[in-house]
Design goal:
heterodimer, A: Immunoglobulin-like, five-stranded mixed β-sheet, elongated, B: alpha+beta, Immunoglobulin-like, six-stranded mixed β-sheet, three-stranded antiparallel β-sheet
Chain lengths: ~140, ~140
């Protein structure tokens, strides 16, 4: 009896995980996400900049617009990639561009080193399968 | 005579009304929306027989595929060797007016030897420019 319950629970858990995995949007073929500007190693005086977000072989669509071969940009600041099988969290280190923006204005970077990385996600803020993310670059804001 | 004048007035009023409707149909754009050709630079000399990338730069406005009616978005159109089309109607689709209705934010083109102009123009979900229209400076490139 106990074994059967455990088996059912395990099966349920596995099927739930699979259902989650299945819901991920397939990535457009040959798509590539990259930071057009700034270049890796850039020195940004004043800590204010526009980050140009690039995507190749795919399109940009605002959140909730579910169309094939599209997604919207997320800029990760000073953090590693989040889990790929769930919604990207939204906070000061995970900026969402659900309005279909292709440039991000940053104004409050403190002096020191910072990392920037892009991650594309589908209309539900979940990364594609396979996930589409850029190289992680490092920029330096000199002391004011 | 009186009837004729009345009919003419009615016609005129209808015409005014309809043109009013046509204007109202244009999608509003934020006044600070800024569109520019991120690459190539104005005056750039490009090698012949080699495709080159064109980056679409856009600030304070988002990108959405055609058909997606989301406020403060539009999709890119690249005008090659031509002036701006009428701004109150659908942008033509031909070799001089390339539509990026899938939400693309860059493209690769190849141009024959000679002097060419490039200009970007945003269109709304119906391919009609916004009000006010959002277009880039027209740049010149030399293919040699």
């Amino acid at each position: 009896m106990l074994i059967r319950t455990v088996a059912v629970t395990v099966l349920l858990a596995v099927s739930c995980t699979m259902a989650l995995a299945v819901e991920r949007t397939p990535a457009p073929k040959d798509a590539r996400v990259y930071i057009i500007w700034p270049p890796d190693g850039a020195v940004i005086r004043g800590g204010k900049l526009w980050v140009r977000m690039g995507v190749r072989n795919a399109g940009v669509a605002p959140k909730d617009v579910c169309m094939p071969n599209t997604g919207h940009h997320h800029l990760l600041i000073d953090t590693d990639l989040p889990p790929f099988d769930e919604e990207i969290i939204s906070d000061r280190q995970h900026l969402h561009f659900g309005g279909g923006q292709t440039e991000a204005r940053l104004e409050d970077l403190t002096p020191g080193k910072h990392t920037l990385q892009l991650l594309l996600a589908d209309c539900n803020h979940v990364p594609h399968d396979p996930p589409l993310y850029s190289n992680k670059i490092t920029i330096t804001v000199p002391p004011y | 005579m009186k009837t004729m004048i009345r009919t003419m007035t009615a016609c005129l009023m209808t015409a005014v009304l309809f043109s009013g409707v046509a204007v109202a149909d244009r999608t509003p754009a934020p006044a600070n929306a800024y569109l520019y050709v991120g690459w190539p630079n104005d005056g750039e000399v490009l090698p012949a027989n080699r495709p080159f990338r064109v980056w679409f730069g856009l600030r304070n406005l988002g990108v959405a595929p055609k058909g997606a009616n989301v406020p403060n978005t539009g999709h890119h159109h690249l005008l090659i060797d031509t002036d701006l089309p009428p701004l109150d109607q659908e942008i033509p689709s031909d070799r001089n007016h390339i539509h990026f209705g899938a939400g693309q934010t860059e493209t690769t083109i190849e141009l024959p030897r000679g002097t060419h102009t490039l200009q970007l123009l945003m269109g709304d979900y119906n391919h009609v420019p916004h009000d006010p229209p959002v277009y880039s400076r027209k740049i010149t490139v030399y293919v040699r």
